[in-house]
């Protein structure tokens, strides 16, 4: 394994970067990434020192409802109203429908003015129409004369024959959900047509449709419930407003924002999401080329197809050039064990530093604004497609690979849960990362300090996720392809599980920091006092001012990531407690 | 003039025929005041003369309504329009389309030709000004392909007039 120093010489970094990348001081930037359980909290200012597991999983403020749950709740509400108001269930159903399924509103209105409520919803207490001749009744629609046995009436008494009722109700049901508010056909009469009458008078098919509308109404007209927007999903969500985020995740595994029903988009807010979506549709023509899945290899110029989830690309032999899909830069410049700073997330309009006359400046700005958008959009879209790919991979893992692995490595499937967990984490991280690009796009240009801090955090997130993604995607492959149990498998487990937990922590902190608007950083990039005052002040003082990210350099010392592991300060590998040097890079434990 | 004949029409159902026969008999026995229908052999399209009520802006003016019945009348509303020239009225477009809720969303099968006529005459009688709807030109232009008023998503003008 190359030592850090060798890498530095090879890369001939300038002094600033040298300082930054320096591996032998307490300044290694990876450390920040590693320290989640400890220093990261300081920087991210989550305001309490409680067990991170608590703050990570706030009390769930939503419930997923299957169809049977929905029906049960609806039945219960109807029964409750029927009991309290002493009215038939069908009447209670009409009332609830009218008051958007709010039991308390029904009760309030009813007990405030029962007569008025009855009038409004059409629950008459006595007939308003008496037939002049009780033996012969004229249907008010077909005008034919019938004996009473062939005539039906709603609570009002207006007579219509079975067939006319059937046509009337059937037409209304086929017109849409308005049938739930159906009234007597007489234009001057508001008597409600209840579900008992409907069940008596219409075809099985129409009954079924009515029933569907009633179920849908319970979800759609109720302020506390919504359907899961995932295509084909029939679950609904009941949401209790109050504290906590709007993110909701359905049993179908789709996560969405309760407030705007777009895909879950923490850490950006709903307004930013809709602005961003609007922007994307306005620019969609310009952006089409970006979505193309092929780019020329930066070295040999042959087209390279991106078919894997992570951004680390390797050109086909004989070129074998390793590069970053996003910036097309050499991968060796990117991090991993070079200790490098992952910088391809940054958008730097270097030209703006030059001096321009006014027109040139304006032309430049117009060009830049599209370039700038392109930069963010491409990264947003890449993470989106990486996420799709990761979802497919996750599925592949769950359906095929875990079983296969269980065979080749002689491991019970229960012991392979760490792989599924890693992939779930990748999917979630890709989602967060995707939205950080919308966040970055709207981050005010003038807040340089914040911007730099943000880009640093985002870069670290990007590189940490790459590490996880690469491990779960490529390193796993070796074991999948193996003929029999590998002695390295346990090390792989430790590494992947460690990376998963480390990445989860980092992203959770990142989301919180961004949601707080990076309030720890003032716009000049000066550190907030909090970081300076951290218990590791010695380390943090050294690199201050580098790129406005001095504060996030933490002190170095090996951290115990959990009771059984310590995390390598150099490569972040989670080593077993007994190891005195990193099993990955031989860095001695400090 | 505007014609609804372009809208493809199916023959009246048996129920519709029976019902219209009854309406016709009733109409002949006691037609609504101000209306005159000369019976033709076409049960599916009635052309009805209406005379403006005395003491209103339309007193002594005569207009003609064209009433077309759909296959599933009365479950579906009839199409009712004024023939050319249509009266000048804030809810009547120059192509004869009438903005009146009972002809569309608020139709009920318990209504009849006669009750519709009475509503239209009352709408005329309550008018205080002879003018076209504000959006007349735009609306009429959009209807040029012989679109039926029943295909319009009506946003009803205030229902006082
Ligand atoms: Zn009947
Ligand atoms: Zn009635
Ligand atoms: Zn779902
Ligand atoms: Zn939202
Ligand atoms: Zn190449
Ligand atoms: Zn890059
Ligand atoms: Zn190491």
Automatic annotation (TrEMBL), chain A:
Residues 525-541 have a biased composition (Low complexity). Its cofactor is Zn(2+). Residues 562-590 form the RanBP2-type domain. Pfam families: Ariadne, IBR, IBR_1, UBA_ARI1. Keywords: Metal-binding, Repeat, Transferase, Ubl conjugation pathway, Zinc, Zinc-finger. It comes from the Eukaryota. One of its GO terms (molecular function) is ubiquitin protein ligase activity. Residues 135-348, 139-183 form the RING-type domain. Residues 1-52 have a biased composition (Acidic residues). Residues 1-60, 525-552 are annotated as: Disordered. InterPro entries: Ariadne, ARIH1-like_UBL, E3_UB_ligase_RBR, IBR_dom, TRIAD_supradom, Znf_RanBP2, Znf_RanBP2_sf, Znf_RING. GO terms for biological process: protein ubiquitination. Might act as an E3 ubiquitin-protein ligase, or as part of E3 complex, which accepts ubiquitin from specific E2 ubiquitin-conjugating enzymes and then transfers it to substrates. Belongs to the RBR family. Ariadne subfamily. This is RBR-type E3 ubiquitin transferase.
UniProtKB/TrEMBL annotation, chain B:
Accepts the ubiquitin from the E1 complex and catalyzes its covalent attachment to other proteins. One of its GO terms (molecular function) is ATP binding. It is an enzyme of class 2 (transferase). SUPFAM superfamilies: UBC-like (SSF54495). Residues 15-161 form the UBC core domain. Keywords: ATP-binding, Nucleotide-binding, Transferase, Ubl conjugation pathway. Pfam families: UQ_con (PF00179). Its EC number is 2.3.2.23. This is E2 ubiquitin-conjugating enzyme.
């Amino acid at each position: 394994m190359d030592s850090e120093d060798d890498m530095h010489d090879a890369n001939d970094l300038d002094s600033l970067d040298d300082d930054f990348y320096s591996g032998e001081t307490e300044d290694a930037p990876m450390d920040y990434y590693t320290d989640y359980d400890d220093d990261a909290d300081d920087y991210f200012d989550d305001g309490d020192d409680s067990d991170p597991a608590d703050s990570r999983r706030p009390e769930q403020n939503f419930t997923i409802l299957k169809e049977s749950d929905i029906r049960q709740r609806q039945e219960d509400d109807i029964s409750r109203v029927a009991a309290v108001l002493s009215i038939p269930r069908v009447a209670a159903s009409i009332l609830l429908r009218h008051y958007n399924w709010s039991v308390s509103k029904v009760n309030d209105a009813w007990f405030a003015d029962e007569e008025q409520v009855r009038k409004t919803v059409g629950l008459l207490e006595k007939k308003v129409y008496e037939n002049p001749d009780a033996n012969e009744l004229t249907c008010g629609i077909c005008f034919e004369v019938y004996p009473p046995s062939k005539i039906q009436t709603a609570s009002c008494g207006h007579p219509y024959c079975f067939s006319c009722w059937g046509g009337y109700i059937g037409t209304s049901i086929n017109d849409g959900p308005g049938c739930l508010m159906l009234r007597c056909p007489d234009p001057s009469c508001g008597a409600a047509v209840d579900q008992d009458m409907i069940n008596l008078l219409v075809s099985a098919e129409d009954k079924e449709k009515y029933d569907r509308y009633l179920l849908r109404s319970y979800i759609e007209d109720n302020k506390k419930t919504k359907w899961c927007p995932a295509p084909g999903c029939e679950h609904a969500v009941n949401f209790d407003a109050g504290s906590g985020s709007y993110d909701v995740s359905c049993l179908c595994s789709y996560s969405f924002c309760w407030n705007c029903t777009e895909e879950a988009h923490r850490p950006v807010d709903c307004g930013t999401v809709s602005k961003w979506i609007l922007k994307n549709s306005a620019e969609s023509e310009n952006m089409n080329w970006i979505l193309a899945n092929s780019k020329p290899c930066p070295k040999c110029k042959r087209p390279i197809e991106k078919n894997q989830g992570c951004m680390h690309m390797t050109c086909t032999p004989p070129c074998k050039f390793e590069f970053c899909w996003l910036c097309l830069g050499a991968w060796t410049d990117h991090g991993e064990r070079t200790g490098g700073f992952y910088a391809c997330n940054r958008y730097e309009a270097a030209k703006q530093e030059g001096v321009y006359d006014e027109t040139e400046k304006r032309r430049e700005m117009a060009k830049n604004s599209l370039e700038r958008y392109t930069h963010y959009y491409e990264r947003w879209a890449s993470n989106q497609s990486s996420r799709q790919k990761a979802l497919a991979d996750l599925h592949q893992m769950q359906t095929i690979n875990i079983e296969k692995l269980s065979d080749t490595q002689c491991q019970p499937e229960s012991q392979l849960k760490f792989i599924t967990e890693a992939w779930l984490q990748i999917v979630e991280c890709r989602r967060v990362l995707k939205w950080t690009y919308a966040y970055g796009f709207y981050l005010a240009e003038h807040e340089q300090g914040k911007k730099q801090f943000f880009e640093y955090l985002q870069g670290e997130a990007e590189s940490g996720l790459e590490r996880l993604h690469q491990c779960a995607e490529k390193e796993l492959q070796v074991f999948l392809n193996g003929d029999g149990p590998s002695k390295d498998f346990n090390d792989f487990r430790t590494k992947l599980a460690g990376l998963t937990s480390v990445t989860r922590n980092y992203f959770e902190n990142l989301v919180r920091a961004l949601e707080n608007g990076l309030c720890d950083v003032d716009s000049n990039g000066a550190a907030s006092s909090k970081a300076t005052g951290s218990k590791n002040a010695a380390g943090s003082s050294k690199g201050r001012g580098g790129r406005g990210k001095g504060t996030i350099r933490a002190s170095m010392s090996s951290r115990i990531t959990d009771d059984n592991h310590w995390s390598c300060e150099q490569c972040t590998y989670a080593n077993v407690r007994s190891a005195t040097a990193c099993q990955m890079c031989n860095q001695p434990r400090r | 003039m505007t014609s609804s004949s372009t809208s493809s029409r199916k023959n009246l159902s048996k129920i519709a025929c029976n019902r219209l026969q009854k309406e016709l008999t009733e109409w002949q026995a006691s037609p609504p005041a101000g209306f005159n229908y000369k019976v033709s052999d076409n049960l599916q399209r009635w052309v009805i003369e209406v005379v403006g009520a005395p003491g209103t802006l339309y007193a002594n003016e005569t207009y003609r309504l064209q009433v077309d019945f759909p296959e599933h009348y009365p479950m579906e509303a009839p199409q009712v329009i004024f023939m050319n020239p249509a009266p000048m009225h804030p809810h009547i477009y120059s192509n004869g389309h009438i903005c009146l809720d009972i002809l569309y969303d608020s139709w009920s099968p318990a209504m009849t030709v006669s009750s519709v006529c009475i509503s239209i005459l009352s709408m005329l009688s309550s008018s205080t000004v002879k003018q076209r709807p504000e959006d007349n030109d735009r609306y009429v232009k959009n209807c040029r392909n012989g679109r039926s008023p029943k295909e319009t998503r009506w946003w009803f003008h205030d229902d006082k007039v």
